[in-house]
Design a protein that fits this description.
alpha/beta, 8-stranded mixed sheet, 9 helices
Length: about 350
Amino acid sequence: MLSHINENQQPQMVDISEKAVSDRRAVAEALIELPPVFQAYVQGGDLFLKKGPVVQTAIIAGTMAVKRTAEVIPFCHPLPITSCRFETDIESQESGLRIRLRCEVKTCDRTGVEMESLHGVAIAALTIYDMAKALSPHIVIREVRLLAKSGGKKTLGQYPLYGLVLTGGQSQRMGQAKALLDYYGEPHAQYLYNLLAQSCEQVFLSAQPNQWQGTPLADLPTLPDILPQIGPIAGILTALRAYPQVNWLVVACDLPYLTTETLAPLLHHYREDVVATCYHHPQEGFPEPLCAIYTPQALPVFEAAYAEGIYCPVKILQRSPCQRIAPPQPTITANINTPEEYHEALHHVRRP
């Protein structure tokens, strides 16, 4: 039975009294396309017309809409909004302008804020239309959609979010298993497993069959590699094949600086219309495939690369559409491969 219909087939508001209070977040997006005549009115990230600054006004209208969602959508619960933030981008194209609006809404309650973020971004888009229609009626609002949500059920966009800790390497230069190194008072693979479990519905270790038998990691859920030992692509492709309709938050066990805070930008800037959302190395400029969120689109991409004999995940992402973001700290993507690097990293993570 649908949750908005009772046993007598009458509409009702969903009872959320038994749900747990938790931090919840949702991000929605809208695209607005305007004809070339508007290009002359762009100034400093806004569109200035006779009615005033268009984008600024749209943000105000969208914020008001977020706070009044329950007054418009019949079965939405009134919620205390703890944060409402808009991001905007104006892109000049041959066909005119494209304005991208994103609305992030947060609350701490028993139900989510998807409708608030969608309502906010939709009203912001309509406000742009209203302020600009006098100059041209040929304005199109496209792709009002939910990009991400967290809290409650652990999903990202339209797919569940799973976690994968890559632990299958030989660690020859280190001389011991990186997954068992202790940075935070426990084997690092256990630490990463617990870290990803805060955001993911399920978390697995990627490993060779029976690799961790007889170790502290033996009881953790594992996805044994089904491919030869050809590096991280074996674990990534194994996970993509095992669960093709989920998003995968993939991290390597040789990254000692990962925390809830350093993973947050990946979750915040996630896009489901690309193969992966990943950090990029600030100096070298290449994407980091071993600290990334892969969408279901990654499966055919990795399958094709594997068939071509391309086993390097960096090369695969370099030729794929990705959302690359700057790491909040340069050390986030630093991987540790030698005993000297391990002791240096240990000093940094444990210093007061």
